[in-house]
Amino acid sequence: MNGQRQSEPPPRVARLVLVTPEGAMVGRLAPVPVGLPWWQDAQSVVLAVQEYHGIDVTILRLLEAVRDRPHGGEITYLAEVAEPVPAEVWAGRLEPHPLRQSYAEPGGPAADLAWATRILAGHGLKPAGRPVQIRSWNLSSIWRIPVARQTVWLKVVPPFFAHEPRVITALAGRSVPELLGHDGGRMLLADVAGEDMYEAPLPRLLEMVTLLVELQSAWTGSVDQLRSMGLPDWGGPALIAAIGDVTERASEELSRNERTLLQRFVSGLANRFAALESCGLPDTLVHGDFHPGNFRGTGRTLTLLDWGDSGIGHPMLDQPAFLDGVAFEYVETIKEHWARAWLARLPGCEPARAAGLLAPIAAARQAVIYRRFLDNIEASEQVYHRDDPADWLRRTAALLRAGS
């Protein structure tokens, strides 16, 4: 998810509790400094443990963090090691949890990699080297697998993102990754040429917007098909109920003024959605995490990645996150281009008015998304998202205050 900009986090120090692939306890390693502060980044932890302890590990999940929000600081992970190694006694306990992902359990990553190897074989391919663990957290497990003259990516996601491979399949032939195979939340993806586009210049940013509008306009009449793929519903009735629920559940974390603003906002949502409907842009496919960093590109191509946050709703829901990720001086030009792109496809529509009506709804939707994560992940991993619902509701209140 593309969240609000934050200050640079402190360095990360990782302490690993080790188990065997069968789940037998090995013990705890002495802490090691890690090159990157981001908690979900597994590759830098694996490299640090290789350097400091001389052993190969697979990161399974976060057990404990000293800091109360990401990132940096001292982190304790559960990790898997092929066979017992010298380690300190660990006095903690590993308890089962009904919301734990399969890749966070001993043996889980190996099962995912074995599946990927079978899919590669079906394409006449096989790994040409050792798979590299890139990421492991409550939203995804990602591995890079070298294959002769190319790279493929194994991505495994939890059930609430399991529509991602179905969306990519439905969009095949457009500017999305090539899917080599999928099974539930498992995906094997071909490498995408080019580089990440976080720092894209203005002309490329405008191309990204054009690409999205073209894609969304093609799906405006296919909402039933999107529903059949299991995408979440962010239409008026569903989002009104969800925003009301997350606002009530986060009320104790908000100031009295924020609660008052948000309660008034929730009570007026039906009227706001009616005004939104009069703008003439129908519900369609929403990417859900549309920002420049979710594009890879070359001089001639652009590929839109990470469809796990996608849903069904108003197309302008994708605008705020994108504008949040670009230089301030580009914002007005991008807004104008976005409006022209929709007017070219739906003459008479009012994308600019829709965007204004949607701004606080889009912020509140982020609170809904993070609340959904918290309701569907185990307690030890909730530190990743614990503050996000209230943070996004505060941002919603700030938008309402500015708008009034």
From TrEMBL:
Q: Which SUPFAM superfamilies match?
A: Protein kinase-like (PK-like) (SSF56112)
Q: Which InterPro entries match?
A: Aminoglycoside_PTrfase, Kinase-like_dom_sf
In this chain the Aminoglycoside phosphotransferase domain maps to 164-343
Q: Which Pfam families match?
A: APH
Protein's name in the database: Phosphotransferase
Q: What keywords is this UniProt entry annotated with? A: Plasmid
Q: Which Gene3D superfamilies match?
A: 3.90.1200.10
